[in-house]
Amino acid sequence: MYLLNLDTGADVNVLSRKMLSKFGVPESQLRDTKIILEAFGGSVVKPVGVVSLKVECKNVEFSADKAVHPSLGLESCAKLNLVTLHKENIDYLSLGKFKDKGEIQVNNEAILLIN
């Protein structure tokens, strides 16, 4: 079992080289990429490559073909039924504040990790 962050604000899945090695994937399997990732705080990350991996969670499988550098992006979280959308998704072009307090409900089986 591997613990991964669920990052619903991310457009890609990311893995460290160490995690990729644990999965038994040689770095020679990585394809070059020109993708540049921008983190929430604005820092820039250049992935070492792209790889296609088969991912399974609770008997749900899909192929992850995204940038490599562990977190699952929104698309993967949704495909694995780890998150669901209950209201309309609104994209904002800048940072801001919500008028009211929000509420987040987490599955009782989820393990909370704070880095």
TrEMBL record:
<protein>
    <recommendedName>
        <fullName>Peptidase A2 domain-containing protein</fullName>
    </recommendedName>
</protein>
<dbReference type="InterPro" id="IPR021109">
    <property type="entry name" value="Peptidase_aspartic_dom_sf"/>
</dbReference>
